[in-house]
Write a structure and sequence with these properties.
It is built from twelve helices and seven strands. The chain is α/β, with parallel strands linked by helices. It has one domain: Vaccinia Virus protein VP39 (Rossmann fold, 3-Layer(aba) Sandwich). It has helices at residues 3-14, 20-29, 39-42, 52-62, 80-89, 100-112, 151-161, 181-190, 199-208, 220-236, 238-245, 247-265; strands at residues 70-74, 92-97, 119-123, 136-142, 162-175, 211-218, 269-278. Strands 3-2-1-4-5-7-6 form a seven-stranded mixed β-sheet, sandwiched between helices.
Length: 280
């Protein structure tokens, strides 16, 4: 990932409508005491991906996550999935994210729910992970790798940090129709999303990195409904977004996200859950 794209992705998430302040404000609005906050209360607000904890548990089931597994969440964001896995299964989870504000926010939220003994967060680049070989039993991710241009190196790093025989389970945005040059340019500029791969391209890259695909599930139809709802949710946050980030950023994000959702509705973009094993 070059420096310009790295900075653009960090800027995108530094000014994202879902952030630590927004999560805390929603908790307070519900009358939840932050001093006694539990993961069961936080899970309604910190799952910044498609499908909530049910989607996290689908990945966990696919990857056979259990108490004894060491799990890495690549591009962990605000840390919702990592915390839920630790809470639900009792496993140790590390989260890796490029954006310092997300990492620091994830750490604070984790301490709030007293899961620091099981969950750690690290700032770093997914194409140059700060972990030793064969550190983890499972690698997961949710709708984040679309921001990473060099997926070959990304998957090489995932394979490197996985134990032989370890599992990889992730969801991501893929191309399923025909994107115009204008569509690709708007995705890259507005969503920091270089041309999404087709699922067949993903499967080839996984195979090239000794990651054998065992399942690939098309989630496109399910995600179309979720994304339409998310667009309305983001618009419902207009006042808090404008107060924190300004009218211009709200308008920029609304335009970019509306276009993104439109590509799903038009059958040009879709989503997959992919599960695989590192060659033992």
């Amino acid at each position: 990932m070059n420096d310009a794209h790295r900075s653009a992705v960090v800027g995108f998430y530094d000014t994202h409508p879902i952030n630590e302040d927004e999560i805390l404000a929603k908790l307070k609005a519900r009358g939840i005491d932050l001093d006694t906050l539990t993961e069961a209360e936080l899970m309604d607000f910190d799952q910044d991906h498609y499908g909530g904890v049910e989607a996290v548990e689908a990945l966990a089931a696919a990857a056979n996550i259990s108490r004894k597994k060491r799990v890495l969440d690549v591009c962990s964001g605000m840390g919702g999935p990592a915390r839920w896995l630790a809470y639900k299964y009792g496993c140790r989870v590390a989260g890796l994210d490029l954006t310092r504000s997300r990492v620091e926010g994830a750490k604070r939220l984790t301490e709030c729910v007293k899961l620091g003994r099981l969950v750690e967060f690290f700032e770093g680049d997914a194409t140059a992970m700060p972990f030793a070989d064969s550190t983890f039993d499972v690698v997961i991710s949710q709708e984040a790798w679309c921001h990473i241009p060099d997926k070959a190196t990304l998957l090489s790093e995932c394979a490197r940090v996985l134990e032989p025989g370890g599992a990889i389970a992730f969801t991501d945005i893929v191309t399923v129709g025909e994107l115009s040059t204008s569509d690709e340019e708007r995705l890259a500029a507005g969503m920091q999303m270089p041309r999404p791969l087709r699922i067949a391209e993903y499967e080839i890259l996984l195979g090239n990195n000794d990651l054998m695909v065992t399942a690939a599930t098309d989630l496109s139809s399910q995600w179309r409904t979720i994304l339409i709802d998310r667009l309305e949710m983001y618009r419902s946050l207009r006042d808090t977004t404008v107060a924190k980030l300004g009218e211009r950023r709200f308008a920029e994000y609304d335009s970019a996200y509306s276009h993104f959702v439109g590509l799903f509705s038009a059958g040009k973009l879709g989503g997959y859950r992919v599960v695989g094993l590192r060659d033992a």
